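worker-3 :: picked MTH1187 family thiamine-binding protein
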Amino acid sequence: MIVAFSVSPLGVGEDVGEYVADAVRVVRESGLPNRTDAMFTSIEGEWDEVMDVVKRAVAAVEARAGRVSLVLKADIRPGVTDGLTSKVETVERYLAD
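worker-3 :: tokens ->
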């Protein structure tokens, strides 16, 4: 499965990059395939391991902010691996035509 999620503190002002970095650090240290862009961090793996990482990423932000917003989208497709790469490669292939 691939999960794209965004975690952000609320009530800490406009500059949230330092808090978001705490969450992304948890994801990167997980060892699961992941990628971060301007809006979301995507992570790929089995349900329990991915959701555990998301939970720990939220906890990392929550440790410094009393309120946290979480947006999560999941692509649950058993048997598919390397979806983070292959889905993008498919789109790029169509764009090249």
